[in-house]
Design goal:
By secondary structure, the chain is mostly beta strands. It is about 10% helix and about 30% strand. Pfam families: PglD_N.
Length: about 200
């Protein structure tokens, strides 16, 4: 197994470290920007300030829920780093589906047939992605969200916990769907909540 460096010591980073262990990785180090470095060990994992870590010595997982910040971090290290695609052993990726570089897929998640998950997306635990979906890059999908078949989710979308997306729906880049929201029509960029989901902020 490779030496794994996980960028992020918040909730997402600590969860992903646990998942990496469950995937069979044993040599796992956490790192964070120097301004936020406080502890040399978290949950038994060593923590190294980002300025002191040798990027080329590790395979990287960027475990940050914020979609824009995740891209900033990836861009900072991508010329030197190799990236791990982490799929929890209890997740199911069905036939014909394609999983991009640096993707994180949490426990109990199902990616149905012929779907695509774009690079550096974070699909949390117990998510269901229906058949023939196109999930773009740098998307975050929180626990227990359901995306039904033939949906298109563009880059930098955040789908909140327990949100539900109707089949054949397109969600525009940068959109945020609040937890528990039910999306029944295409969404332009903005923040949406409720059942049915309604825009509360954006153009």
């Amino acid at each position: 197994m490779s030496r794994i460096a996980i960028f992020g010591t918040g909730g997402a980073g600590r969860e992903v470290a646990q998942w990496a262990l469950e995937c069979g990785h044993e040599d796992i180090t956490l790192t964070i920007d120097d301004d936020y470095f406080t502890d040399t060990e978290i949950n038994g994992f060593s923590v190294i300030p980002f300025s002191q870590i040798a990027i080329e010595d590790y395979v990287w997982i960027v475990a940050v829920a914020d979609t824009l910040l995740r891209e900033v971090i990836v861009k900072k290290i991508e010329n030197t780093a190799k990236f791990e695609t982490l799929i929890h052993p209890t997740a199911k990726v069905q036939l014909g589906s394609k999983i991009g570089e640096g993707v994180i897929i949490g426990p109990g998640t199902v990616i149905s047939i012929n779907s695509k998950i774009g690079k550096h997306s974070f699909v949390n635990g117990q998510v269901i992605i229906g058949h023939d979906c196109d999930i773009n890059e740098y998307v975050t999908i929180a626990p227990r969200a359901v995306v039904l078949g033939n949906c298109k989710v563009e880059a930098h979308v955040f789908l909140g916990a327990n949100s539900s997306i109707r089949e054949k729906t397109t969600i525009s880049s940068g959109t945020v769907v609040g937890m528990g929201s039910v999306v029944v029509t295409d969404l332009s960029n903005g923040i949406y909540v409720g059942n049915p989901a309604r825009k509360i902020r954006g153009k």
